[in-house]
């Protein structure tokens, strides 16, 4: 106890993943490899998204060659959470379907964005200011701005939740 991080502990549980089980993770356990493992074993996950994690939508572009037929190539377009947040009213929820997370290995997922009320946002900013002072760190303006939303990722089918 107390010698391993939550993230390392969570990784040790992956061998026990079973089909149709739901794994609820929080930020301390956030590892995209673990979510991929759960998905590969036909399990389901629900987790808050760590805000530095990038979100993409997949599009296709045509690549033309001189010596062979044209081909479609996937292109990943980054989705900016700030843009979504600015479109939402406090208390409103927005879903992104068929998106991908991760800069390197893109994991297909569904994103749910909740716009916090002003009171919730102010409490988060207050708590973050205390952490900044206590730990001697400075959060980026983007991090502070995104305190106005809570972002979840899941592979649970929309018909279920």
Automatic annotation (TrEMBL):
<dbReference type="InterPro" id="IPR002559">
    <property type="entry name" value="Transposase_11"/>
</dbReference>
<comment type="function">
    <text>Involved in the transposition of the insertion sequence.</text>
</comment>
<dbReference type="InterPro" id="IPR012337">
    <property type="entry name" value="RNaseH-like_sf"/>
</dbReference>
<feature type="domain" description="Transposase IS4-like">
    <location>
        <begin position="1"/>
        <end position="99"/>
    </location>
</feature>
<dbReference type="GO" id="GO:0003677">
    <property type="term" value="F:DNA binding"/>
</dbReference>
<dbReference type="GO" id="GO:0004803">
    <property type="term" value="F:transposase activity"/>
</dbReference>
<protein>
    <submittedName>
        <fullName>IS4 family transposase</fullName>
    </submittedName>
</protein>
<dbReference type="Pfam" id="PF01609">
    <property type="entry name" value="DDE_Tnp_1"/>
</dbReference>
<dbReference type="GO" id="GO:0006313">
    <property type="term" value="P:DNA transposition"/>
</dbReference>
